Structure formats: structure tokens, C-alpha cells
Amino acid sequence: MPSSFRRPPRFAAGCAVAAFAAALSGPAWADPAPAYDALVARLAETPLITEAGALLDAAEARVRQARVRPNPLLGLEAENAFGSGPFDGYSNAETTLSLSTDLELWGRRGARVNVARAEADTASRRAVLVAADAAGRLALYYAEAEAADRRFRLASEALTLTLADTRASLALVEEGREPLLRGIQGQTEAAAARARLDEAQAERDAAFARLTGFAMLVRPVTSIEQSLLDRAPALAVSDTRPAPAVLVAEAEREAADRRITVERIRARPDVNASVGVRRFEAEDATAITFGLSVPLPLFDRNRGNVEAAQADFRAADARLQGARQEAEADRVAARARLASAASRVSATDSGVESAEEAYRLSRIGAEAGRISQLELRSSRAALIAAQNAALDSRLARVRAEIDLARLDGRAPFGAVQ
User: Fold this and answer.
1) Domains located in the chain, CATH noted
2) Residue 37 backbone phi and psi in degrees, to 5
3) Which residues of 167-197 are buried (b: 16+ CB within 10 A; e: fewer)?
4) Alpha-carbon gap, residue 65 to 119, rounded angstroms
5) Which tens digit of pLDDT belongs to each residue from 119-150?
6) Which of 31, 163, 311, 341 pairs as cysteine with 396 (C-beta 3.0–4.6 A)?
7) What is the pTM of this model?
């Protein structure tokens, strides 16, 4: 075979080796992410938890405000002054200083406080839900970052194996034991492996950036030292308490029920009482005044607001029923997915061991000339697929644990919140 047809594949393999070395070269330092449990303990610093805490503080402040009685009204009124005839000037004037206030009859204040308390309870339960969601997102970003880092390493390993097989294939081509097509195929596979490595590197950088941003870390994360993918969650029966979403729906239903009472009370007359002192300038005398004022419910009886509150209650009750059904179904599904994922992890780990042994024997056979290059490529592809399947099974196990932990109102993997 002419040498001019043999050099390009060998030159391409050399370029591939150089490109692989350049791809792996990078900063000598690496800033590892803090442990997952440590990040969970710092979730209070994240904007999600901060916002939920602020909303809870606002709701509790509204409870305190609801307990406050309305301010009395101080009035000063002058009559029969600065007119004409006997009312010229101020000598015959009548001056009244009065103090009036809303009596808040019919349980107005108590109903108002009950609504504020129900809304504060809703905010409190929603804060628990937000905390569980935040812990779940943190676990997901942490696991995805670790998975992306492992995929990058697998892609690097796959490129190393591909280049090694390509070099072996080129050696056989040099010896005339394999056609030139095998060298060209090896070059194509090496290029595809380099492309997958570049894609894996981009995914890894993006996953590290998401973890850094959500965890509010000062320095960008560049590596994962403490694994979450290898951390097996407990398969015991999860908590039987209602899911946080159900608790929120229950609190919202209770608040809607109490608003109906408030609107019904508003339909009753708002009674105001007043007491004062009147000064009679002409007689140089004073007298006490007192009175009650009650609006006549001729037109506005608050029926629209009562009906609206009742409709809101029916909607809240429907949401509660839906939340209960959905939570129960999701909990059963999450338990099933978690058990299935745990079994899948064990199976894929066994598959990786078998694929590694098969590839090792294929390499030995190919070097001895007993196995063709096509069989070697097939065993290498099977090994790469098995390694990625094992990684996917671990990520699926983490996601199933995240779903179950969110329904239980806890941090995934039992981390302390």
C-alpha cells in the first residue's frame, strides 16, 4: 500500500491525541462544592427561603394589627356663630367637643383576627413547602452537577479508549492486516468522541453554574468531592402525615371559611357611639351629649361579597380534595420509582462489570488477532452505554428520593434543614 495513503490516518490519530491532551488540560486548581448536608443547612440564606420567611413575618404582623381596635374620632363642632342678628359673633354659639368610636358589635374584631390567624397559618405551612421544594432543588442541582462531572470523565475515558483502539487499528493497517477503511473509521470515531467530550464539558460547566448560583456560593464550583449519586436513600415506609401541599390547601380552605363569617358580619349594621361636651355661650353653661349612629341597610347588604366568599370556599375545598388525591397518588408513585431505581442501580452496576470484562477480553483478542476490529468497537460501545446507564440509574434514584422527600416535607436523604 502506498505510504501516501497510510500517513493521513496516522497523522490524524496524532492530532487526536494532542487534542485530547488539550481538552483535559485546564487550571491546576479545583474548587470543590461543600457537602450536600452543609448546603442544606445554609438554605436559609437562599432567596426562596428568605422570601417565604418575610411573607410569614408579614402575615404575623397582620395578626397583631387585626387585634388592634379602631381609633376613636375626636370632633369639634361650633353652631350658631358668626351669623346675623342675635347670632352675630360668638356670644350665642354652641360648641360641642365629641368623641366617637366604632363599637365593633356582632364579633367583628374576633372574625377579623380569625381570618388573619388563618392567613398566618397558611403562610407558615407554605414556608414549610417552600423549604422542602428548595431542598429538593438543591439536591437535584447537586446530583446533576455530579452526574455532569461524571459524564465528562466518562467521555474522556471513552475518547482515551477510542484513540487507543484507533492506534491499534492503524498499526494493523500499517502491517497490512486491516484495510485502510478501518483507519478511516477509527478517525471518524475519534472525532465523534471528541465532540461528545466537548458537549459533556459544556453540560458540566452549566450544571456547576446552576449549583453555584442556587446555593449562593461565593466562588464557582468546579468539582464534586462528596458524592450524592452513590448515597442510597432509606427504602423504609415514608411519613404518613399529609404532604405540605395538602397542609397548605387545608389552611387556605380554613381561611376561606373564616372569610365567609367576616362578610356575613359586614352585612350587619356598623354601630357607632359618641359622647361629648357642649358649651352654650349665651347661658354660660355646659351639657353632655351622647348618641348612637346606625346605617340603614336599605341598599347594600353585602350579599355579593358573601356569595363571593362562599364561592372562594368551594374553590378552596375543591383544591384541597384535588391536593389530597394527587399527593396520595404521587407518594405511591414515588415509592415505586425509588424501589425500581434502587433495583436498577444494582443491575446496571453488574452490567458495567460485565461490560468492562468483555471489553478487556476483546482488547486482548484484538491484539492477538483473534477478534476483529468491529467486535472490539462493539464491546467498547457496550461498555460506554453500560457506564452511562449506571449513571442514569443513580440520577433517577436521586430524583425519586427528591419527589418522595417533597411529599414528606423533608430534605432529601434525611439531611438536616
Assistant:
1) 14-19+31-69+104-267+302-414 (1.20.1600.10)
2) -65, -35
3) bbbbebbeeeebeeebbebbbebbeebbebb
4) 13
5) 999 999 999 999 999 999 999 999 999 999 99
6) 341
7) 0.77
